[in-house]
Task: structure prediction
Amino acid sequence: AVVSTQSTGFYSNKVNLYLSGHLHSYERTCSVVSGDCVSPGSGTLYVIVGSAGKFLDSQYYDKYPWSKYQNCDKFGYQRMTANSTHMNIQWVTAPGNEI
Result:
């Protein structure tokens, strides 16, 4: 898992958000430092969105304490809005437009 291999380097370099799309599924974590959940903004939030492609992975997810939401059953896409102080990230199912 990318959380266990990268979180120390991300923390020391003050990385707040990691976006990836490699897996054909969706996963979101809490803010993480060294594999532990910390208060929002104190660590790195990992968001993996790969659910808009040709097929979905039906892989087994490990149940780590930092993994807060996982979905490999629905297609979807990520919608983001931001201003100078905040960012809002939503995962939207397609079809269906569930958030």
Notes: The chain has a mean pLDDT of 82.
